[in-house]
Specification:
The protein has 297 residues and is mainly alpha-helical. The chain has helices at 2-14, 19-25, 35-47, 52-56, 59-62, 67-89, 104-114, 117-124, 128-143, 155-176, 214-217, 220-231, 282-296, and strands at 196-201, 234-240, 245-248, 251-254. Helix 1 packs across helix 10.
Length: 297
């Protein structure tokens, strides 16, 4: 559990708008952000079609909370912002007079000490030896932050590389017990360094890739590189799809193809047959499902 918590913290510092990671660590250790508080923030983020973190920073949302809960939200936001700023100032070769964290490992150890995470592990274990073993395992993982290459890269970039490597290693461990002839479901962030005979990239829509926030945050080039990584995983064939519409918050909203698709060489792109867009006749559909059942036994 402590490893997953730590990785969720790192993901949150890289991208506070990652709701899954933020919701995991918001009250770990306990800091006054109860389940009820987080559920209200999640509902507010849905209403505003934004992230939970955006809701936490929105005064029109936080002022609806009681004083104690509001202060807990504000303290959490301040911690995230400050720790992210410390990450930026982190230098792998600091000067003796620098006030910044001396390394990624020191930076990570510092924020875990600040939030009392190590003490939380000790309190949660009846056996002190088990608690210390868990802490030792976590510190061993923290130590590997120092080995991320290249050491001259910006801290946030090295941290992203670390997270990608961890995910890739985990995927490879899972693959050891998987049959060779199988479909692999994988995210774009996790597919770096891998290759597959046939690749299907889904959801290539404006607002998903590039993400709607990328234009505001100035990360459009990063999104383009991510798209490049995804399409270059294919060895034989590449299929890309996008939706004409998606249902969000009970409403069917139109979707538009990703602008990145316009950057592909036209001579290399083969568009799907228009017949594929026509509705399937009931009889034809039944025949196809019957054939699939026969094939699967």
């Amino acid at each position: 559990r402590e490893i997953r918590d730590f990785l969720a913290y790192l993901k949150t510092f890289i991208n506070p708008h990652d709701d899954i990671s933020l919701l995991r660590i918001a009250n770990t250790p306990a800091r006054g952000l109860s389940d009820v508080t987080m559920e209200r923030l999640l509902a507010a983020s849905h209403e505003r079609k934004g992230s939970v973190y955006s809701a936490m920073k929105n005064p029109s949302v936080t002022t609806t909370f009681m004083t104690k809960s509001r202060e807990s939200i504000e303290a959490f936001v301040e911690f995230i912002e400050r720790t992210r700023a410390e990450l930026v100032r982190t230098d792998s070769t600091p000067s003796p007079h620098s006030q910044s964290a001396s390394s990624l490992g020191t930076w990570a150890d510092r924020f875990l000490e600040e939030i009392g995470y190590f003490n939380e592990l000790r309190r949660g274990e009846k056996n002190p030896e088990v608690a210390e073993n868990r802490i030792r395992n976590l510190k061993d993982l923290i130590a590997t932050l120092e080995k991320v290459e290249p050491p001259t890269a910006p801290p946030s970039e090295r941290l992203e590389t670390f997270l990608e490597d961890i995910t890739l290693d985990s995927d490879r461990e899972d693959d050891k017990d998987s049959p060779g002839d199988a479909v692999t479901l994988i995210t774009m962030h996790s597919c770096k360094g891998l290759e597959f005979p046939h690749v299907y990239v889904v959801g290539l829509e404006d607002g998903l890739l590039p993400h709607s926030r990328s234009k505001i945050e100035g990360t459009l080039d990063e999104e383009r590189r991510l798209f490049y990584v995804a399409i270059t995983r294919a060895m034989l064939s590449l299929s890309i799809s996008h939706c004409a519409g998606r249902k969000k918050y009970g409403q069917l909203l139109p979707c538009h193809p990703s602008p990145f698709l316009n950057e592909l060489p036209a001579e290399l792109v083969e568009h799907a047959d228009e017949k594929a867009r026509q509705p399937v006749a009931p009889a034809s559909g039944k025949d196809r499902f019957a054939a699939m059942r026969d094939m699967l036994g």
